[in-house]
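Troubleshooting log. The previous structure file for this entry was overwritten by mistake, so regenerating from the original sequence record. Sequence copied from the archived sheet and checked twice against the printout by T.R.
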Amino acid sequence: METGPPIEHRPWMGEQYCLGIEGQRIAIVGHSHWRTIDEKDTDDYTQMVLNEVIRGARVRFFPYIRGYFGGISNDFWQHVMFFNLLPECLPEDMKDSEGTEVQVKRAKDRFDGLIANTMPPPQKILVFTRKGWSNIPWKQNEERKALGPDFPPFFVWGVHQAGASKAMVFGLRHPQGAKGRLLRVAVRTILDMPLVDC
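Regenerated output below.
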């Protein structure tokens, strides 16, 4: 039996992505979509989910993220790029896993490819998942630092290069495992940071 090429979710690109938030091009990164056995995975899965969110669907994760940026309306999603680290849906019974070895390898290549090939590239990338953060393809010379003394030690950041593009990348908690106030303060801190090497 022949199979087609593997699914590769296209990232969401808001219509105002280039204007960004407070003049900064922002990418939001989650870990993965998951689906029931009856749902079909497609390359446009992320666009379908975000369009539902914009129309008012309460899909877990997304309303929290918007709120961390000041509770602005669903117009928020028109100002950012969004993608999950894993390039395809996980089945429902694997939704809490990191993914297969093959998916994680593809995720690392995907992360660098999206930074290198998005024009203009994101300047600040907020990774709202510790599972995702652990699979960012950091280079040996790329230092990671604490976000600051007011945050837990796993709130970290660094400058990552992919191709000719560089971006400030921030590791944060998934909304399910963090206090909302802490993440609101972290996002405010990130937005207030001057751009470095981007």
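The longest strand covers residues 165-172. Archived copy saved in two places this time.
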